[in-house]
């Protein structure tokens, strides 16, 4: 007789379950933000060169996003597939998915690291670097990329753990890494006089700790579905890529958009372009405080949707999704108020220059005008992905990014460099309107189709 899986994902009350999984995942992402925020905070206060060093690290932001995209390709591909198999009581299939996800992460770490290190100069100048920023960007970039294997394992496998319903374990993995990063940043940057390179060294070492913690859990008996010695299965590898392609493309496009912002600020910012890029790096740090915990809520609860969709309990899926949307709305409402009232104190964490403070605070207030729309967009896109309905999740994410991309290129060409900041609220509001209508009209139809399959 096949082994049966007794999981609270299919039995616990939806409201309680959403909170149990979403809150630790959200807190984990809050802590995870410290990777970049603490780095940039210390870098911005390096004596005499803080502004240039901060801009150099900001130019490297797309690198972090790119590596996260490869981790998402596997983690957000294997995680939902595993949850669905768990819901169908197919534990052997779930084990094969986890093992092949692990193999893929190791392989991708080699595929990513070598060409990116070799091509680092043209890559960084394409991201918006200048000769003045090059030494700082190159130092951070090279060191961070050499630790790609640990970044991929820590992020990708963390999603596998979360998709089994172990949000608390995933949170502790992230918190361990963040604590190491906070402790090592001042040591590496200032005490060891490593400067910008020290910030990257601290980050890589923190990712080593997170990866080791997650691996220890998945190789133990505590995991519902651990890493086993299953052979390579190209059918599962193909399915992992198919499901993970949507979130990976979404993150990769975020990467393109980050690059586009820096490029357009460089093109239209004139003599102020380095200053504007430095302020954009601070803005990106603030946006991480919104988007990463929000993504934590929706990623942490994907296991509920995937498990019950696999089990055919679509009513439970609908009830859980409504509670996820409500939680996201509460979070974004709080963050909107903070963005509009606390932008200046936040910017002062990174710089004491009054011009930078005024400009970056204005950027934050402007960029977040439509943030409430994310409370609809994120649950809809990530929810579809968690149930393996990749085509729909990707479609509605591409809509938002397409609107943003058009705004980034059109607004500064028509008006001034800083008007590109309005591209974000415009895209948030328009895409949320479309996604909200789809949630009301399309989501029930997709659930009825799943019921008919039983």
UniProtKB/TrEMBL annotation:
Pfam families: MatE
Cellular localisation: Cell membrane
Membrane spanning stretches: 17-38, 53-76, 97-119, 139-161, 173-192, 198-219, 240-263, 275-295, 324-342, 362-381, 402-423, 429-447
Family annotation (InterPro entries): MATE_fam, MATE_MepA-like, MATE_MepA_subfamily, MdtK-like
Record's bilayer topology term: Multi-pass membrane protein
GO cellular component: plasma membrane
Nucleotide-binding keyword on record: no
Protein name: Multidrug export protein MepA
Organism encoding this protein: Agathobaculum faecis
Lineage of origin: Bacteria, Bacillati, Bacillota, Clostridia, Eubacteriales
